[in-house]
What we know:
The protein is mainly beta.
Amino acid sequence: MKMEKTLKKGLxxxxxxxxxxxxxxxxxxxxxxxxxxxxxxxxYKNLANSYxxxxxxxxxxxxxxxxxxxxxxxxxxxxxxxxxADQKAEVMKNNKVIINGGxxxxxxxxxxxxxxxxGSAYGAAGQSAVVSDNEVIIRGNSxxxxxxxxxxxxxxxxxNNKVIIxxxxxxxxGTVLFGGRGSRNVSLKDGKAAPFDVITGNTxxxxxxxxVVKDVKNFEKLVFNVAVNQLKSNDKLLVxxxxxxxELQKPEIVKVSEKAxxxxxEKEQILKEKNKDINVNIDVVLQxxxxxxxxxxxxxxxxxxxxxxxxxxxxxxxxxxxxxKYEVKFQQDAKNLYAVINxxxxx
Length: 347
């Protein structure tokens, strides 16, 4: 039976390779560098050492572990800019990238704007597809020197994607965590302003302490999912180093393309809509039963030495779990968002 399944899978893959003009198949799993069989994909720029899956747009898993040459970019699924019309993706979803002890290195900067080149991971990246329900998980002692994108679509919506940070990873000085991202230069497509929605449902989940990155953008939800018995007073969970300060409710600012033939009033309306504040939902979830009652344990959820702006505090949290109940209250100053935790053991 197992051999029969393997044979059927092999025939399916072969048939798909022949019929590239038809819908691409889904659900591939590839590991780097263990099996060395991943696609050397180029994505949107000619980065020779990029790795991912370009033959399937849905349900893929790309796993990068330690060892091997540092990668420039990793994609759970990727649609090249020169993809043939009959192979273009409409939806790219349910893909997962797991970086576990792997290295994503920056190999210099882009000449155009001197931004970081390489070292980035994408749940999925497309041209005009809806990119949704993808995950990027960074764990272990991974070294990621570029950006993390739950998803990217140049002219489409990027929604309901998740970025999860756990273990003890290291990030670059310029690393930004994005829930979703599209073109930062709004143009018109079929009479509508593109890019579309790159915020709704995108979630950042922090499951460790001392995560240090430059900034976080385009997340509608931040979840601090922490092991309660490993927390100490004044622990910092997420540290943002942007010297210009951090505004959690602000999306990445986009502009209107000079090529867009619209009036000044229309331009103003587009900018108002695209750059409106995010209604950020912040949650704290305790993992594990406390070893004892906890009283007024104050930890730093978000630290930004350049200044932290959040227009309103999150609502207080009260939950009952098996064997304990806990409350979380939030406080804020010019540089920090705090959680004050109280937990009580119950029979």
